[in-house]
Design a protein that fits this description.
Strand order of the largest sheet: 11-12-13-14-27-23-22-18
Protein name: Aldose epimerase
Structural class: mainly beta
Organism: Paenibacillus jamilae
Largest sheet: 8 strands, antiparallel
Order of helices and strands: EEEEEHEEEEEEEEEEEEEEEHEEEEEHEE
Strand content: 35-45%
Shape: globular
Number of strands: 27
Amino acid sequence: MTQQHTAIGDLYYGIPAIRLKFGRYEAVALPGNGANLISFRDNEAGYSFLREPDAESIEAFKQSPSVYGIPFLFPPNRYEDGKFLWNGVTYELPINEEATHNHLHGFLHTVRWEVEDYGSGEQGSYVVMNQHVREGHPMFRYLPFTFTMKLTYSLDEFGLHQRYVIHNEGDQPIPNLFAFHTAIRVPFVPDSSPEDYKIKVTIGERRELTDRLLATGQFQPLSPEEELMKTTGVSPYFASMDNHYTAAPQNGRNYMELTHSKTGATLVYDVGTAYKHWMIWNNKANKEFICPEPQMNMINAPNRPDLPAEDIGLIALAPGHIFETTSRLYCVTPNKTKS
């Protein structure tokens, strides 16, 4: 282990944290705040890739943790009137979005996760956080399934690696519906402007949403700008977006690219092909951040048994079985000619 490769317990604006460093990269995880990966930086280039709170906004983060860093959502997005239909049983989730009378974003992005392990070596710096859901867990009251999940974040020469694993330890199939509400800072290059960036995402079709932001099962035509978003790229703020898309991997990869036109620096978020959907939200095009959210299921999928489960990402995990998927965030910079 060298001084550049470290994993330490630390404080992040007074919040207990695990701080990882490997070479040029640095990341911070907050186990007690939903296992949020709140920071990912390239210290040599001066790039800060995620929307982070500062000293003035740390209290806002505590109140609204889903709009900073990389929060983990399980089950993700909205469920009509808080109802969650699974294997013929309707479970009742709390209504926590009064404007739509829906349940929003599940339970695990606000609770404490256990730090199972952290460390560093020549191959990388890492932290493993876990969640054991069983009787007595706050989530079990609403969704009484028994499982363990683990989130591992690691830094190496190739950037930030994310690993999600869930093990069904119960005697019935469980819903494996999840997303990462990833908040990307735009601009991420110092002294640049939001107008300097283009975003590309491997979207397919846009799902139609009701005025309660629930998926109808129908599709809408893509706008010319959305067509550019899945091909050559477009401004991340071309319009206010809170849009739901199917995922359409290209060349075997499911990803987002955010490119700074003046330097050519490109942030790549390669999420893997397990995800069936993307949510893309830019907070009314406020020119501060955009959330390209890899999401397994269609919004409100459990309440749409009339639609094919595979198409809407209504994924069941059988008793005793394990599901795993990985993602990576990294930055590509143009090759410089040596003098």
